[in-house]
Amino acid sequence: MKKTLFTILCFTFFGVFACNSEADLTPAGGTGNPADGSNLYPSYNTNPIAADATGMGNTAVQLAAKIKLGWNMGNSLEAMGGETAWGNPKASKALIDLVKANGFNAIRIPCSFDQYLANAATAKIKEAWLARVKEVVQDAVANDMYVIVNIHWDGGWLENKCTEAAKSATNAKQKAYWEQIATYLRDFDEHLIFASTNEPKVTNATEMAVLTTYHQTFIDAVRATGGKNAYRTLVVQGPDTDIEKTNKLMLTLPTDKVANRMMMEVHYYTPYQFTLMDKDADWGKMFYYWGATTRSTTDTERNPTWGEEADLAKLFKSMKTQFVDKGVPVILGEFGAIRRTNLTGNNLSLHLASRAYYLKVIVQQAKANGMVPFYWDEGNIGSNGFGIFNRFNTSVADSQALNGLLDGLN
User: Fold this and answer.
1) Alpha-carbon distance 39 to 177, whole Å?
2) pLDDT, tens digit (0-9, with 9 covering 90-100), for 173-182
3) Taking Cα atoms as reference points, which of 238, 225, 219 lies closest to residue 171?
4) Cα 165 vs. chain centroid, distance in angstroms?
5) Which of 95, 260, 320, 397 could bridge 369 with an S-S bond, Cβ 3.0-4.6 Å?
6) Phi-psi region at 260: left, alpha or beta (left = phi > 0; alpha = psi -120 to 50)
7) 29, 255 Cβ separation under 8 angstroms
8) What backbone phi and psi angles, to 5 degrees, belong to 301?
């Protein structure tokens, strides 16, 4: 998700529809991309080394089982204009220590790279920025935490260009960036996981085929650098990271010469009116409450009309059937709901209870269906924010939401 600190932007409208649970994950075929645009930039795989299996012994399934609960360091290293441009302080070891101390053993670090180029003509990333990303990764890995590094929205250079017309140039940039990122971070063991992109905008089978080439380029670029990257677990994203679209459109996966080291990723912000919507529209109103036990008896027009427990269970089950049961773990890379502290009295109390219950049910259902949950936290601890931790004084700012997440593990 791409959001400024105080403005929530929804790029995907998550719906609940019938799912095709019988899809066969047939390999896409081939290990390279004939239209990868590889002549546009120089190769950055300048010092490939021999494969090194040291510290890389777990398969994707085994690794997924080790991740208890994940947290997103949102609106920081992916912030357009610089790490602090969206209102957060620089990420610190103290923050990571706080996250670990409060029950999370994994961090997803959304990253931008396109804005940090030393030379746009050659797609050369500034070494100082690669070093900064490595510093944050090191702080987490040193804490025995698992880390996912992705290329996030990053100005939309990939996410908004899943088209045949853009395929060649986009693949060229994907290859150049991942050769550099993978080489720079190559020495980390299996605690570090790479993810191809974030929320790629795909609406049909043609665009899905283009996205698959971007994932293939990512996998090939990482593997070619050698060392521990020869065995690193890699994550590819479904279309829009939307569960229903993924179930219908992601019928093939990119190929990998290393078996059992791939995960896939979806996000969950359903129902939109409860999780993201911050003002009423002519087509519908905001939901303040969620769940069978936390509906309002006095403010009934703000109760949800869709997207509650049964719909959630059905969607998560579809991911288990299509991917988990076939040996491909599913990362629930983002989920959450904004905190509506503009409410007052009993309405506020019930809303906050609904939100905590929502988070609990998501974690419960994710675990029940073999999915690995990563809560979306963009640092905003005020109204319409997701923040659980105060990043300025490194303290817990929303214990009710935190407890909801942790309760889901029990």
Assistant:
1) 14
2) 999 999 999 9
3) 219
4) 26
5) 320
6) left
7) yes
8) -70, -10
What sections of 125-236 are H helices per DSSP?
127-141, 164-184, 205-224
Q: Give dist(CA 409, CA 367) in Å, integer.
A: 8
Distance CA 357, CA 365 (A): 12
Residue 27: strand, helix, or coil = strand
190 burial (CB, 10 Å; 0-12 / 13-18 / 19+) is: buried
Contact assessment for residue 5 and residue 88, using Cβ atoms and an 8 Å cutoff: yes
Number of C-beta neighbours around residue 102 at 10 A:
17
Q: Which class would CATH give 47-407?
A: alpha beta
Q: Give residues with Cβ within 8 angstroms of 71, minimum separation 6.
A: 99, 104, 106, 107, 108, 374, 375, 377, 388
Q: Can you tell me which residue has the tokens 């407890």?
A: 403
Answer whether 336's CB lies under 8 Å from 275's CB.
Answer: yes
Neighbours of 251 (CB within 10 A): 17
Rounded average pLDDT over 185-193: 98
pLDDT of 73-110, one tens digit each? 999 999 999 999 999 999 999 999 999 999 999 999 99
Catalytic: which of 199, 207, 265, 378? 199
Strand partners, 266: 332
Task: Give the bridge partners for 125, in sequence order.
Answer: 117
Length of the chain: 410
Cα–Cα nearest to 319, from 308, 333, 330: 330
- Our answer to whether residue 378 is catalytic in this structure is no
Q: In the numeric block, which tokens belong to residue 78?
A: 């992916």
Taking a C-beta distance cutoff of 8 angstroms, is the pair 48, 226 a contact? yes
DSSP assignment letter at 91:
P
Of 190, 207, 334, 378, the active-site residue reads: 334
331: exposed, middle or buried (Cβ count in 10 Å: 0-12, 13-18, 19+):
buried
Interacting residues of 142 by C-beta distance below 8 A, sequence separation 6+: none
pLDDT score, position 25: 56
User: Which pLDDT band, with edges at 50, 70 and 90, does 56 fall under?
Assistant: very high
Contact call for residues 14 and 272 (beta carbons, < 8 A) = yes
CB hemisphere CA count around 49 (13 angstroms): 11
Task: Single out the residue of 157, 159, 171, 166 nearest to residue 37, CA to CA.
Answer: 171
Q: How far apart are CA 50 and CA 48, in angstroms?
A: 7
Q: Is 22 a catalytic residue?
A: no
Kindly state the tokens that stand for 299. Answer: 């403010």
